[in-house]
Amino acid sequence: MTDKFVRALGWASLALGAVQLAAPRAVTRLCGVDDTPGATTVARLVGGRELLHAALLLGARNPARWAWTRVAGDTMDLGVLGKAAANRTGARRIRALAALGAVAGITALDVACARGGTAKARGPLQVRASIVINKPREEVYRFWRDLENLPSFMVHLDSVRAINQRRSRWKAKGPIVDLEWEAEIIEDRAGDLIAWRSVPGVGVSTDGLVGFTDGPGGRGTVVDVSLEYGAPGRKLAAAVARMFGEHPEQQVRDDLRRLKQVMETGEVVRSEGSPEGHRALRQLRQRPAQPIGGRA
Amino acid sequence: MKANVWMGRNRLEIQDVPDPQILNARDAIVRVTSTAICGSDLHLVDGYIPTVKKGDVLGHEFMGEVVEVGSGVRDLHVGDRVVVPFPIACGACFACEEGLYSVCENSNPNAGIAEKLMGHAPAGIFGYSHMLGGFPGGQAEYVRVPFADVGPIKVEDDLPDEKVLFLSDIFPTGFMGAEMCDIKPGQTIAIWGAGPVGQFAAASAFLLGADRVIVIDRFPYRLRRVQRTGAEVLNYEEVNVLDALRDMTGGRGPDACIDAVGMEAHHPTPAIYAYDRTKQAARLETERPYVLREAIMACRNGGVVSVIGVYGGFVDKFPMGTVMNRSLTIRTGQCHVQRYTEPLLQRIRGGEIDPSFVISHRMPLSEAPHAFELFKNKQDECNKVVLTP
Ligand SMILES: NC(=O)c1ccc[n+]([C@@H]2O[C@H](COP(=O)([O-])OP(=O)(O)OC[C@H]3O[C@@H](n4cnc5c(N)ncnc54)[C@H](O)[C@@H]3O)[C@@H](O)[C@H]2O)c1
Ligand SMILES: [Zn+2]
Ligand SMILES: [Zn+2]
């Protein structure tokens, strides 16, 4: 289910909400409930709720999750309209039944949309980030191509050992046990890009691609990284991210920033709260002039 | 070692904290001989700069003697006497190559936090919140100075501390404030704030060829001090500033306006002051932007508004219409100190200016909390305090 569709539902909510707030009487007539004293108030309340849905669906970064709020609203409306139809006769009953049918149709759409949205979140996790480094392309490429350098700026990696030109063995700190897997380089174009993936059947599935292009105005190098974690890898990524208290996206961006520090200044820049170097968690919780074997 | 430590809003304490250690190869440890209190520190003490934590060591204006250097430091040796710029800069990134040291791309290990608030991250600053790196400050006996081969400037022994200390911040800051005005002969520059930064801005505007400088404040003792630079003064509690500036410039307005007050400006009308003060206290807006608004309104068409007073977050009722329709230019930034240390040291050596003219109090570091009181509340005609550990 595409985000576009979700946004369309958002716009529908906005229109519906606006009508219900502006002309509640017309709405109650259309639904056949204009004979109940509190009906216009209910129509107004429902209108307000629709505006809330609209805000959630149109404003949120990941709108599909919020489609469930619409499903909840639909269920409420179905209940109200069902009761209205049961208690009425004649033209009013027909109008109430028509409204009931319409809402049921909308509910089906909303459920489909909400399920699509949640299902999508279970696919592979992709993260992308880029940075400009004030060094020639060749040099940055060469540093990365020596995969054993990666742990110097990627916080969650303990070590990477090259087995041969293509294969390497990776170790990462997991939340409970440490993780190990093998990866192979599947594409390698000197000065341009490196792509790798974990060897199938090792429990962790990750793909990575890093591209190197000339920086703006020919100054420096743009490093562009895309990582993808398959189902088992996804759990790893999420766990690691939790462990360091960071969003995976943020973590990759911070990793790249450390790469930049290493390339441009020689090492990861430390402040007092990060005595063992570059652990992101320590950096977030650092306290100047306090730890470092002191009284802390 | 002893250090001046932030323990909560308006709570400072002298505490024993661990001595700094070399963490990066390009670090040096400096034994502080003189350090100062800055208007920027007041924003921290008053709690308007986010991500300051209990136990943080304050201070970003300091100088001293190098007592230890890391393995990667060339050009700096144990025993050297140095003044240290307040922004930390690597000297190798794009920003540093452009001379934009206070937005160095490598010196802030907490860039991720700053990015969330500001979009992109500025450089690390000594003793100025975790968002800006979490580096312990200079109101201490010792400081670790990262990238020691880039920022610190060596000074010979014949110049006393008091003459060179302010190269660490306020002299370059005032100078940059004036430089951003693109001053041409015959021009009139108006400056809000007769604090030490405003005083250096006034002196620098004359160094850069301004014809007239008009400084605005409400403390007579500060206005008297700034008059010594040759500036004219306005007391905003006695006159309407906009009217007065119009009258003094033939109705056209000053060619450039410098905001040397920043986020904690005061307003002469109690009701308006109370309105923004309340909003700021409730953290609905982070600034009290009277000076910024007034500087914009006062500036002549096509002129420059140079903002060196510090702002931390978001401003309400910003007069964008007048900026746009009257072709104003706004220029601002934390000072790129490293750009100015050498040329300004030459001006000091050449006798063009003696920066010690701003000093009003000399006290031991152990009295820092009391010194802050005096400086914050403008008691005892306090203008600038130098502390010695
Ligand atoms: N950009 C930088 O790199 C940089 C560096 C140092 C300091 N600063 C900033 O410069 C500002 C001034 O620093 P300082 O050390 O001189 O501080 P200070 O507190 O000594 O001086 C501020 C002065 O502004 C005056 N003032 C307040 N409200 C005013 C108003 N409405 N109109 C006119 N004057 C008003 C006060 O009376 C006071 O004299 C601070 O915001 C500080 O953070 C910026
Ligand atoms: Zn300062
Ligand atoms: Zn830099």
From TrEMBL, chain A:
Residues 286-296 have a biased composition (Low complexity). It comes from Sinosporangium siamense. This is Coenzyme Q-binding protein COQ10 START domain-containing protein. Residues 267-279 have a biased composition (Basic and acidic residues). Residues 266-296 are annotated as: Disordered. Gene3D superfamilies: 3.30.530.20. Residues 133-257 form the Coenzyme Q-binding protein COQ10 START domain. InterPro entries: COQ10_START, ORF3, START-like_dom_sf. Pfam families: Polyketide_cyc. The lineage of its organism: Bacteria, Bacillati, Actinomycetota, Actinomycetes, Streptosporangiales.
TrEMBL record, chain B:
Residues 196-264 form the Alcohol dehydrogenase-like C-terminal domain. It comes from the Bacteria. PANTHER family: DEHYDROGENASE, ZINC-CONTAINING, PUTATIVE (AFU_ORTHOLOGUE AFUA_2G02810)-RELATED (PTHR42813:SF2), ZINC-TYPE ALCOHOL DEHYDROGENASE-LIKE (PTHR42813). Residues 26-153 form the Alcohol dehydrogenase-like N-terminal domain. SUPFAM superfamilies: GroES-like, NAD(P)-binding Rossmann-fold domains. CDD domains: FDH_like_1. This is Glutathione-dependent formaldehyde dehydrogenase. Gene3D superfamilies: Medium-chain alcohol dehydrogenases, catalytic domain (3.90.180.10), NAD(P)-binding Rossmann-like Domain (3.40.50.720). InterPro entries: ADH-like_C, ADH-like_N, ADH_Zn_CS, GroES-like_sf, NAD(P)-bd_dom_sf. Its cofactor is Zn(2+). Pfam families: ADH_N, ADH_zinc_N. Coiled coil: none annotated. Keywords: Metal-binding, Oxidoreductase, Zinc. Belongs to the zinc-containing alcohol dehydrogenase family. GO terms for molecular function: oxidoreductase activity; zinc ion binding.
